[in-house]
Amino acid sequence: MNYPVWQLDFAGGGLLIALIAILHVYISHFAIGGGLFLVLTEMKGYREGSQPILDYTRKHTRFFLLLTLVLGAMTGVGIWFTISLLAPAATSILIHNFVFAWAIEWVFFLGEIVAILIYYQTFGRMERRNHLIIGWLYFIFAWLSLFAINGIIGFMLTPGKWLRTGNFWDGFFNPSFWPALFFRTFLCLMLAGLYGFLTSTAIKEEAFRLRMVRYCATWLLAPFLLFLASAWWYVQTLPEPQRAWIATFSPELAPFLTVFLWGSPLLFLGGLLMVIRLPQAATRSLAVVLLLLGITYMGAFEYIREGSRRPFTLFGHIYANSILAKDLETVQAQGLLASAKWVNKEITEKNRLLVGRQLFNIMCSPCHSVGGPMRDIKKLSAKYDSVSALEAGISGQGKLNLSMPPFPGSDQERRALAAFIMEELHGSKEQAAEVSLLKLPPLAPLPFNPDQDGYVLLAWNNLGMHSISDADGFFSLMPPANNLFAQLIRRGPTPEVVTEGVVLSYRVEPSFEKPARRVEFWKYLPSLFGLTRPDNTGLSGQSLSGVMQRKKEGKAFVAEKVPVVPYPAQGGYQPYPSFTIEARDMTTNTLLATTRMVAPVATEMGCKICHGGGWRKETAGISATTAQGILTVHDRRSKTNLLAMAKAGKPVLCQGCHPDPMLNAPGKPGLLNLSAAIHGFHANYLSGRGAEACGLCHPSNPQGATRFLRGVHHEVGLDCTNCHGALENHALALLLAEKKAGKAGAIRLMQHLKPSGGATLAEIKPRPPWLQQPDCLTCHANFGPPEADSAFGVWTAGGEDLYRNRQDESGSIHCAACHGSPHAEYPATNPYEKERDNFTPRQYQGNPYPLGANRNCKVCHTVDMDTDLHHPNSLGMMRNTRE
Amino acid sequence: MDPAYLIPTPDTIPAPWGFFEFLLILTFFAHLLFMNAMLGTALIALVREMRTRPDAPPPCRDIAGKLPYIIAFAVNFGVAPLLFLQVLYGHFIYTSSILMGGYWLSIIGLLILAYYSAYLYKMAGGLSATARRLTIGTSLLLLLTIAFFFVNNMTLMLTPQAWDAYFQRAGTTLLNLDDPILIPRYLHFVTASVAVGGLFLAILAYFQEKKSEPGAEKRLHAGLHWFTSATVVQIGIGIIFFFSLPKNVYQLFVGDSLLHTSLFAAALLAVYFTLHYGTRQRVWPTTSALAATVLFMVLMRDLVRQAYLAPYFHPADLRVMPQWSPLFLFLAILVIGVAVVIYMLRRAARVSEEVER
Predict the structure, then answer these.
(1) B94 and A121 in contact by Cβ < 8 A?
(2) pLDDT at res. A251
(3) Quick one: which of A139, A759, B126, B315 could link to A755 by a disulfide (CB 3.0–4.6 Å)?
(4) Do A70 and B116 touch (CB under 8 A)?
(5) Interface contact B112-A100, CB threshold 8 A
(6) CATH of B13-163+170-322, one of 1.20.120.1780, 1.20.1630.10, 3.40.50.300, 1.10.8.80
């Protein structure tokens, strides 16, 4: 923010710090433990009167000096250089707060240099006692250096009370100071043994070599238990967020934790192995192996410690992107470009990628490399399929993904950043191409003679779009299961809804008869639903053709859960398969009436936009890669093992755990219902995007392969949000209900959601999914012309009041029978073939309007009527007429 | 872009700025002496190695034995002023370091190589002349490169108006090559190093002479010859350096400011005395005059820095949030630490005497 950025790309993301720091700590800890090793080994030589031990100590001192004083000390300065280049703001805080700690450490460093040089130069020449004093002074200075640095390093992870007081001592003697000091001290001793192996295995005389190797093994093994105990103590003193971060094996830290957990017994075993009499070549090799194991082990520990600070550089004080926690809101309010120095001040069409690069440099490059080994941004963003998808990913950072800071910039800045990553780094352009749809011929017309025919057969689908997930080998969000409804009306001055003595049957168009050849639903049915069905037979036993059942309530016939899928035999994607419905006399089998209807079914779920992979079938469908991406995220976030289960052939139904009234699934107690969980989670990424957000996941994208909004509401310019609200409001309504039910997950998901459209949280009315939905009568008060264009927030009282279940005031006819399926209200415009959804009104009236529109009561009543029996205003004239 | 806009906002300091200024000048003074001795002796060693016939005995045992240790102290005494510089001028030095990121960080690698090469040179005493020339030559070349990068950074941090290059050369790091002061300043430091290196050898020879070591007197004269010759050359380079400074800066030292001008006069006087005693082979008076010269130069250097940054910043602008107890602890530990160091050095000195006896 405050400083320019050294743009490293491949070596970015802190690689330089990691390399130099790990090398330095591995040597500098040896510089401490090894110092004690020197003086104690010298004492041992005197005690035992052993010249070989003294000679060995002297040689080891030379090795020690060359390693610690040159490589150890210079890499220490190197860390300082590196952090000031890569994290200058945080370094500046460390320097300015702890200048006297650094200065004290410098005095100790001076003492170390003087002591070790004298110790080496005078070995064997100085009077023994004095030489030992110099040796002890070296060790004391070296350990005091650790004491000083330990306070500052611990401060970065656990600043404790300093955050409030700003007091030097609060920061220095921070909560992890003492356990870390013990931990590191024991580590120093062990490293003295590990490095000792290098020189002791070089001793030529075998008996003496074995003696000294065993002596070094004691250094490694003796402190081991104390070391592990201090490690445990260390973790215990960490504040909750950091401890949880480690304890939950966050995916990025997991490999390092594994290295650390495996490294301990391996190092111990290696130490034991050194005790055994082995050929010199074997012990020499083993010594090198153990030294390498040691640096890996220590590197893993330091990585975990560093990783636990995320998303901060100084926990709770300054984020990794150099924004002070206290400044975050200000930066969010005024934008990044206005807050940062060393960046262009405005975004234009010409410079947007350049500014995106600058924003990447200040915001992302502290942790992310470009094509390098450290959290490679190209790899991490590869799954996003467009600039706007990555924008969504960025929007969610710091909300649910707590390992990253929240993105503090404006929408425009976020877009520039995403554009830089997607367009410049990935070379991909925004996906703007409109999907070209199959051209369907009109459905073959069926005759109706208003003067002679005795019946009107009305048929509809009770969902405007049945969205199914066709990733059955991985999970099921919604099975193939359309509900076909029909009502048969005997025409006459007093028409009658026929419910007895007739058989209503349905039959899908031929190319959709074998869904089992297109999806794997039947293969995984036992795992998903705990039951089996013959191929092409749905969950309720209905197949793609058959007899409709009389509904218990009301006067409709229904074929429930017909497993139709949007993949015709000839290939491609066609989400509007048609069914032919016939009504026959039960006894004579005489055909009374025939009509056709559309059973809309879509697999165009946009998961792949952010979760990786492509469409399963060219323009729709959830591919295996996408499904795996989804399960990976779910497993990571919710500590599940769904991907492993899926790979073992045991995919699950989402509603197996998440309650869902749609499937009558009770779910697991305490878990959010599926709608609240999914909308709540994704709203954290997709807020503020209006109807566009809906179309990223649902098949309402106006350029997509389904375009399921095809009713008259769409035609007059309304979109999803007019009825359902923007995603954030929609999600909040669902979450509020779950919060009321005492579910903790709701609070977590709601934490960063802000209502849009000027609403306040208090104004949003909680609702359960599916059962309470927007009410038509909110806008169409008393069935009249609309008085408003927002139905959000006024919910139907219950399931019976939903448009799809509701009946007219006479209690005979379903609303949808005359007005069409939800989202395809007459007059509808189907993107595949304009009149496809209007088949019934066109058959009976010759126009696409609701049954009986424009006072066409004769269609059933055979005579004109002057009472609005079905609902008030039913004698009005059609407002949205077509040319 | 207005350079003032690019200057980062500094953090607060935990004691009045003068305190850090004092420590900065004190520790930089020590660093400069070690650094000059390091670079100067390395250069003199290489010249001697090149002048010596390959079959002759190694000419620089005195330098070879000491160089790695001088490097150790040059680095140690470099850490302290860099720390205090960051306290007062962190927002400048971090920025310029980042702008020359790759070069700046390479110093660490170069230093490690130079250091190990110096150890090799120390051990190469018994090896061939080629090995000796190669090792000391490598060390010298690397140390000269490091010095060049340092001079780049120390000048770049003073010239925010040059920082705009960041926007023209996004993604790459840069040196301050366009600054007319760069080369004169670099030569000034290198020449000073040769002088101090020569004087350092003269001091070593002085002690050897006391012990009646053969050839010590010759070495003493040679050392002082290096010193005086380099100082004479320095007068020329110094003049060029001085007048390469921005006019408003150097004029402070020739009349515009009494403090600056007095200091400059004192420094010139001290230089006169170094030459006066140096040509008369008087080691300690020369050393005292040199110490005074270096001290005046360090003070002047600091005033030059303040003059450069005057349009943007003065350390007195920094907000002070005092925390006294860590400061007192530091002073106490400094006193104890220095006492222990003196104790150890005395013990060590006694060993040499014991061995000699």
Answers:
(1) no
(2) 67
(3) A759
(4) yes
(5) no
(6) 1.20.1630.10
Judged on CB neighbours under 10 Å (0-12, 13-18, 19+), A30 is: buried
As given in the structure block, the two tokens for residue A307 are 């990783």
Of B72, B119, B337, the CB nearest to A107: B337
Q: Among all residues of chain B, which has the CA nearest to that of A81?
A: B105
Domain coordinates of chain B in residue numbers? 13-163+170-322, 323-357
Q: What is the pLDDT of residue A637?
A: 87
So what's the pLDDT on residue A146? 97
Residue range A130-175, pLDDT digits in tens: 999 999 999 999 999 999 999 999 999 999 999 999 999 999 999 9
pLDDT digits (tens, 9 = 90+) for A739-788: 999 999 999 999 999 999 888 999 999 999 999 999 999 999 999 999 88
CA distance to partner chain B, nearest, from residue A119 (Å): 9
pLDDT, one tens digit per residue, over B211-264 is 888 889 999 999 999 999 999 999 999 999 999 999 999 999 999 999 999 999
Question: How far does the CA of residue A291 sit from the closest CA of chain B (Å)?
Answer: 21
| Contact across the interface for B91 and A167, Cβ inside 8 Å | no
Nearest chain A residue to B116 by CA distance is A70
Mean pLDDT, chain A, as a whole number?
94
Residues facing A456 on adjacent strands: A489
Residue with token string 């490999």: A255
Q: Give the pLDDT band of residue A432 (cuts 50, 70, 90).
A: low
Contact B348 A3 (CB under 8 A): no
Find the angle CA(A530)-CA(A769)-CA(A634) to the nearest 5 degrees: 60
| CB within 8 Å: A74 and B112 | yes
| Nearest-neighbour CA in chain B from A84: distance (Å) | 6
d(CA A396, CA A686): 8
Token pair 């003269």 in the structure block, residue: B202
Interface mutation target, options A10, A16, A39, A77, chain B, most CBs of B under 10 Å: A77
For A790-819, write each residue's pLDDT tens digit: 999 999 998 889 999 999 998 899 999 999
Q: Residues 292-331, chain B: which have Cβ within 8 Å of A?
A: 321, 323, 325-327, 329-330
pLDDT at A430 over 60: no
pLDDT at A252 over 80: no
Separation CA A807–CA A794 (nearest Å): 19
How wide is the angle at C-alpha A24 spanned by C-alphas A23 and A26, nearest 5°? 70
Which chain B residues contact residue A70 at CB under 8 A?
112, 115-116, 119
* Backbone phi and psi for residue A860, each to the nearest 5 degrees, phi listed first: -115, -40
Mean of pLDDT values over A59-80? 95
Among partner residues B11, B76, B98, which is closest to A92 by beta-carbon distance?
Answer: B11
State the ipTM, two decimals: 0.96
Is some CB atom of chain A closer than 8 A to the CB atom of B22? Answer: no
| pLDDT, mean over chain B | 94
Spatial neighbors of A210 by CB under 8 A, at least 6 apart, are: A277
Pairwise CA distance, residues A174 & B308, whole Å: 40
Asked if pLDDT for residue A267 goes beyond 80, the answer is yes
What mean pLDDT do residues A697-711 have? Answer: 94
Continuous segment of H or E residues that includes residue A744? helix A744-750
CB contact under 8 A, A114 and B341: yes
Would you state the torsion angle of the CA atoms of residues A291, A294, A298, A299, taken in this order, to the nearest 10 degrees?
Answer: 70
d(CA A247, CA B349) in angstroms, rounded, equals 55
- Mean pLDDT (whole number) for B280-301: 96
A563 neighbors A510 (Cβ within 8 angstroms):
no
How many Cβ atoms are within 10 Å of B154's Cβ, its own excluded?
A: 19
Asked if A483 and A558 count as a contact pair (C-beta separation under 8 A), the reply is: yes
